[in-house]
């Protein structure tokens, strides 16, 4: 059996946390031969609820669960951590402007970035789920200068999975028939689900659907799926978000399937003309624990416009918190 790895989950007492922790402990994220120690971080008022979650984890008697730490101290939560899923974030409150939300989260993610810098393994892999995920990932990365910037990513996998599922339904095929999906940019309404390179059972997706459906139905449906879930369920996506977090880290740690790629919010190196340093979603392949941006894909004028629009929003978000960035 392998040595246990330490997995930090923030916001662990929340609804995504509840759908996430049991799957990590079961081996769904890092493999059925990889023991894990869960280091659960939440705020002080959530400690009782977190203790209850720990009791349930204990009651599962998971063979791979080698320990559970519950804490409200980021230095303890990130101690020697190998993986961190940053789920906890400040939700938008009544009367809160977008700028206030960005600032409140900048404060949380600056503290956590510093705690990662000072306490975690230098090889830690970080996934930011808490919104605004891409900019929160940027803030975390900038506050952890001793860790490679490639080790900070933002979750776009839920958007990616939604995009695959909607296309499979439309074409009457299985999700496993859908290959090379891309969602570019920000985890927000400006995201761009791009079918230009996607195939369904080997046929180009754009040969199977009408351009009008693609532009006016598909793209908005995928981009606004989160809002549709809230309307239907009365609460935001939780199990599907947890599932996407598992998929993201599993692909990153254990590799992507040959001939396919996934969407990940990663540090832009300037690929496809996207400003260097933004955390932007690109098509990626993963091998040996490292992601690589897929190069050389053709970008139509329509795609270029959409990719630039979502980049502009990320630039604006970054500029909005620039005074808080080191
Ligand atoms: P909940 O409100 O159920 O849980 C959030 C938890 O975070 C709470 O337990 C809270 O006490 C904790 N928390 C707040 N501040 C903290 C801090 N400074 N340190 C540690 N813990 C802290 O929210 P939930 O539904 O679990 O969603 C969590 C985040 O995921 C939200 O920001 C949400 O917007 C975001 N999402 C991101 C998605 C993505 O695709 N990137 C999709 C799903 C989800 O909407």
Automatic annotation (TrEMBL):
A Pfam family recorded for this sequence: Ldh_1_C
GO BP: any one term: malate metabolic process
GO molecular-function term, one example from the UniProt record: L-malate dehydrogenase (NAD+) activity
Sorted UniProt keywords: NAD, Oxidoreductase, Tricarboxylic acid cycle
Catalytic reactions on record: (S)-malate + NAD(+) = oxaloacetate + NADH + H(+)
Residues given in the record as NAD(+) binding sites: 11-17, 42, 105, 112, 129-131
Annotated substrate binding sites: 92, 98, 131, 162
Active site: 187 (proton acceptor)
Annotated ranges, domain Lactate/malate dehydrogenase N-terminal: 5-152
Oxidoreductase listed as a keyword: yes
InterPro entries: L-lactate/malate_DH, Lactate/malate_DH_C, Lactate/malate_DH_N, Lactate_DH/Glyco_Ohase_4_C, Malate_DH_type2, NAD(P)-bd_dom_sf
SUPFAM superfamilies: LDH C-terminal domain-like, NAD(P)-binding Rossmann-fold domains
Entry EC no(s): 1.1.1.37
Keyword NAD on entry: yes
Lactate/malate dehydrogenase C-terminal domain location: 157-321
Domain of life: Bacteria
Family affiliation: Belongs to the LDH/MDH superfamily. MDH type 2 family.
Task of the protein: Catalyzes the reversible oxidation of malate to oxaloacetate.
Protein name: Malate dehydrogenase
Organism name: Oceanicoccus sagamiensis
Gene expressing this chain: mdh
């Amino acid at each position: 059996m392998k040595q246990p790895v330490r997995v930090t989950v923030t916001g662990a007492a929340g609804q995504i946390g509840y759908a996430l922790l049991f799957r990590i402990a079961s081996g769904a994220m890092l493999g059925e031969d990889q023991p894990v120690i869960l280091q659960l971080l939440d705020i002080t008022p959530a400690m009782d609820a977190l203790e209850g979650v720990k009791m349930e984890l204990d009651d599962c008697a998971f063979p791979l669960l080698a320990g559970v730490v519950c804490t409200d101290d980021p230095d303890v939560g990130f101690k020697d951590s190998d993986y961190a899923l940053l789920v906890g974030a400040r939700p938008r409150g009544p009367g809160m402007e977008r700028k206030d939300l960005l600032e409140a989260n900048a404060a949380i993610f600056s503290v956590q970035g510093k705690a990662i810098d000072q306490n975690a393994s230098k090889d830690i892999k970080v996934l930011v789920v808490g919104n605004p995920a891409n900019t929160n990932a940027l803030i975390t990365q900038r506050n952890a200068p001793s860790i490679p910037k490639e080790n900070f990513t933002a979750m776009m996998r839920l958007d990616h999975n939604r995009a695959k599922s909607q296309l499979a339904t439309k074409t009457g095929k299985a999700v496993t028939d859908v290959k090379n999906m891309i969602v570019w940019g920000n985890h927000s309404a400006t995201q761009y689900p791009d079918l230009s390179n996607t195939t369904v059972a080997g046929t180009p997706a754009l040969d199977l659907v009408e351009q009008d459906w693609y532009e006016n139905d598909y793209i908005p449906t995928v981009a606004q799926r989160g809002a549709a879930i809230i309307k239907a369920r009365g609460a935001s996506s939780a199990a599907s978000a947890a599932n996407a977090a598992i998929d993201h880290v599993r692909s990153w740690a254990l590799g992507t399937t040959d001939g396919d790629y996934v969407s990940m919010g990663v540090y832009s190196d300037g690929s496809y003309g996207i400003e260097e340093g933004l955390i932007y979603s690109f098509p990626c392949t993963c091998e040996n624990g490292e992601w690589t941006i897929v190069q050389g894909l053709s970008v139509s004028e329509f795609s270029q416009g959409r990719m630039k629009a979502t980049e502009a929003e990320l630039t604006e978000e970054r500029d909005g918190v620039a005074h808080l960035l080191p």
